[in-house]
Amino acid sequence: MYITLKGGIDLEKTERSGQCFRWIREKEGTYLIPAFGNLARVREDGDGVEVEFLSKRADEDAWIRYFDADLDYSKIRRMPDKNDEFLMNAVKAGKGIRIIRQDPFETLISFIISQRKSIPAIKTSVQRICESTGRKIPGTDVYAFPTPEELFALDEDALSKCGLGYRAAYIHAAAGSFAFGDMDADVLNGMSDEQLIESLMSLHGVGLKVANCTALFAFHRLDLFPVDVWIQRALDTYYDGSFPLEKYHPYNGVMQQYIFAARYELK
Known about the structure:
The protein is of the alpha+beta class. The protein has 15 helices and 5 strands.
């Protein structure tokens, strides 16, 4: 399957941009990506990606949405104020990053884990969670992400072995909310940005940053601008503490990724 991506993609920059924690790099320009109960080998190719399904054939429309194929990122990259040297350079550093539309439950759990953890540590904990249920994607050796029911069924000892620390209680509670229907991804998807953030923050241990990241990377709310300590340092240095959100509506979340790229030198 070939997916044309307007504005292109750089898989490595996207993987390193702090939004995806389960991609497996095979070689330059090629990743194994588990999603939708499927494992795919994804390779950069021209203006898009070649997707090779390694287990069951997945819903092709889901993969098109996953890579945000309908949005032309080259137009977004032309938005920065020409007098904003920092943002102009950030866009260059982040060229090729796309917002990946991921599974809501997996994204929420991953970003609960992310609190006060480095990206390598987040990946390790997410991998341990996947291994904890022992369920592999059919026909592969890659573990599937647990369902809410599977994750809720894990006891405190099993969760502690995943390196979750104090986050274990938050994750168990979130899994229960999804398992028992208090939270429903389809219902959340129909909410406004404000309602979505409020609903996610009603979960124990979910603050504004985790809610914004979940909304941006799972629900495609591209105008949300998550702020962590590193982004805040960039804002303090170049914008007197506050990003000019009104200039970059409705793509502030994409600009946030470019700023992340500049700060982490994803060049």
